[in-house]
Every structure is written in structure tokens, then in C-alpha cells.
Amino acid sequence: TATMQLAVQVARLGTRFVLLLAEDRTEANRLDEVRRDFIANISHELKTPIASVSLLAEAIDQAADEPDRVRRFADRLTVESARLAHITSEVIELSRLQARDALRRDELVDVDRVVATAVDQNRVVAAAKGIEVALRAKSRAQVYGDPALLGVAVHNLVSNAVAYSAEGGRVGVGVVVRGDSVEIAVTDQGIGIAEEDLERVFERFYRVDQARSRNTGGSGLGLSIVKHTVQNHGGEVRVWSQPGKGSTFMIRLPLAEPPVADDGTGGAGG
Ligand code: ADP
Questions:
Q1: ipTM over 0.85
Q2: What's the predicted TM-score (pTM) here?
Q3: Distance (Å, rounded) from C-alpha 112 to C-alpha 253?
Q4: Which among 176, 187, 111, 105 has a CA at the least distance from the CA of 146?
Q5: In sequence order, what E strands does 115-180 have?
Q6: Using an 8 Å Cβ cutoff, are 164 and 216 in contact?
């Protein structure tokens, strides 16, 4: 009968509703877990530098009469506290990005300029390793977004390329327009990344080689910041790599305006 049919339908809908709720619950649990992991990871990452700082402070105290040792300890204290500051600011940056209120500014960004600045910021460190960074940024591309955040993202890729290259290696950075996107590619001839690690390098705190990465001062957050920044700008980041040969990381962002042929009319004046 009609009533029966209605009852069955209501029951069916009811089941679906419950299932949807259950899915919601699972998602909420998963997010809780991610959040717990994140905090556990942060605590773990901070423990070592905090311990070093207090040990060094103690050592300085005990070496008070020996200026040479005091100076040596003080230098290391500076390094460790810089590391603490670095991790803390990356954590703050990442949680902001994840909160999606990340684009504090949304303006026309000159991509060539952002990339050139990020490369310049890495030149001193690169030169110290005898690494030349070749830059080709003449795309004239513009995207909408936050220039500071985009700068950090490109900076992270370039500093990784330098960090995971051998002395005397070469790093190439290029900006090209392709269709209605701009592509920023950072290529190195460094240690490369094994296939099984490729997908995971964008995860928070993921490091292929914990010891080596810690020596380079990395926190394992750099690429995760790149990924979130690029996604918040409606783009994507990809990686190709071959162990022992090198890696290419590529950021693709939607152009603010699709490229137009220069017809000399100059657009809507003013
Ligand atoms: P980190 O601060 O450790 O560099 P990232 O999130 O920037 O953290 O990178 C995660 C891991 O991915 C690194 O620890 C390293 O193992 C690997 N990786 C990133 N960039 C490169 C690269 N250009 N060449 C080789 N390995 C890389």
C-alpha cells in the first residue's frame, strides 16, 4: 500500500541519513587524529633544539672564565635558537594556511619578480656550496594572490634544491606561461627522491632521511607549506625525480588574465 511504501522510503532515507552522519563522524575523527599527530610532531621537533639551548646556556655558565669556550657555545646557541625560531614560524605559517584565511592579501602579483627575489634570497647559501642558480624569469605573468606567501613557497623550493645538491651542483629556475597558467620550475642535479617517497614529501614533517635533513636545518614543513600555499592560490605543485640524478619541482598557478595579443589599444585607459 501507499502507506507501506512511504514507510519503507522514510526508513531508507533514515538509513542514508545515519550513514551520512557516520561518515561525518569518521571525517571528524580523522581530522582529530591529524591534529593530534601534528601537535605530537611539533613537540618532538621542538624538544631537541630546546634541550640544546638549555644545555648550552648551562655550559656557558660553567665556562664563564674561558672566553674562547664561551664564544663557541654562544655561537651554537645562536644557531639553535635560530632553528627554534624557524620551526616556530613555519608551524604558525602552516596552521594559518590550513585555516584557509591564508590569503591576507589578494592582489595582482608579478610572478617574475617574486621568483627573482626568492632566488636572490638563496644566492649566498648557494655560493657557499659553489652552486650556481640559473634564473630565467621573463614570463610577464601575473596571478592573483599574496606575494609574500608565494615568495615563501618559491623560496622553499629553491632552498631545498640547494640543500639537497652536492657542492658545485647546478640549480635552474624557470618561469613560463603555458595556456592559462604560469609554471615555475625548480630543477636540481642533487640526491633525488626515491619513488616511494615522492608522494610523501609534501606531508607535514616528512623527511626522506631524518639525519641528513636535520643537518641541513630542515623541519620537514617546507614542502607542506608550498603545497598549501599553491592550493590556496588555486594551483598545484608536482614533482619529478630520479635518485642520484636530481629533481624538478613545478608550481602551476592560474594566470590573473589569459595572455592577450598586444593589439596596441592598451585596454580600458586610466
Ligand atoms: P625539509 O625542511 O626537511 O627540507 P621539506 O618539507 O622542504 O622539509 O622537504 C621534505 C623532504 O623532501 C626533505 O627532508 C627531503 O628528504 C626531500 N626533498 C625536498 N626537496 C628535495 C630535493 N630538491 N631533492 C631531494 N630531496 C628533496
A1: yes
A2: 0.76
A3: 13
A4: 105
A5: 132-137, 142-145, 170-178
A6: yes
